[in-house]
Amino acid sequence: MNKTTFLYTIYQDGVEHWQLSFQDSASPISEQLVFFHDYIMFILTVILVVVSWLILKSLINRHYYKFLVEGTVIEIVWTTIPAVILIFIAFPSLQILYTMDEVIDPALTIKAVGHQWYWSYEYSDYEAEPLEFDSYMVPTSDLNDGDLRLLEVDNRIVVPIHTHVRVMVTGADVIHSFTVPSLGVKADAVPGRLNQVSFFLKRPGVFYGQCSEICGSEHSFMPIVVEGVSLDKFVHWISSKLEENE
């Protein structure tokens, strides 16, 4: 079992058959999004139970029905309660929204460009000549044991853990979408426009994503793979990549 497979068996960082839950969070933003989802699901469950009980009660007891269709009290109740519920939903939603839009001085900036149908990346923080490479999906016939079909790429995005990373996203031809669920990031890659997402990796691992905007016949064959490593390994990877390009 290779290291990637071992990490994947511990954490759910990629899609699985018949998956109902989210992938395991690897960034604070992703953790907040999952918590907010669970919070909303709890509220929805309570609403569903109460409304179902009222409907069932009115069907069984015909005399009970008249208390639900007319009267000042019931009008006030079913107007006030939804308003209060929406307030409890809006505040945490706005908090997460503004947190995701907050720009923190990044230690590393990566430019991601969507093409039909692959991604290209550029590291330009450390050298006069930027590090550029393309990332294509690995065909099924070339997969190794433990690799994930339709999700593996020949060149991964390698980033250091415990570091603020910013990704500048754009498109070269049509609209694509840069999405990595475990990191809680999703941004449209629009030609002629730069969007940005930021994340902070809390742990090492390999995190899988895909283009989430229908961009043509090969839309489902342009995955995204982010590998989180220690700072020492990241420096070694950058050095080896720059030497290869010389």
Q: Work out the count of structural domains.
A: 2
Oligomer: single chain
Q: What is the second-level CATH architecture of the largest domain?
A: Sandwich
| Biggest sheet overview | 5 strands, mixed
How many strand elements? 10
Please name the CATH topology of the largest domain: Immunoglobulin-like
> Strand portion, in percent?
15-25%
Ends: how far apart?
34 Å
The order of strands across the largest sheet is 3-2-1-5-8
Overall pLDDT confidence: 85
The dominant shape is elongated
Order of helices and strands: HHHHEEEEEEEEEEH
Tally of contiguous helical segments? 5
Helix/strand-derived category reads alpha+beta
Describe what you observe in this structure.
This protein is an alpha+beta fold. 38% of the residues lie in helices and 25% in strands. The chain has two domains: 28-101, Helix Hairpins (Orthogonal Bundle); 108-245, Cupredoxins -  blue copper proteins (Immunoglobulin-like, Sandwich). It is built from five helices and ten strands. The strands form two sheets. A five-stranded mixed sheet has the order 3-2-1-5-8. Strands 4-10-9-6-7 form a five-stranded mixed sheet. Strand 6 and strand 7 form a beta hairpin. The mean pLDDT is 85. Residues 105-240 form the Cytochrome oxidase subunit II copper A binding domain. Belongs to the cytochrome c oxidase subunit 2 family. It is found in: Mitochondrion inner membrane.
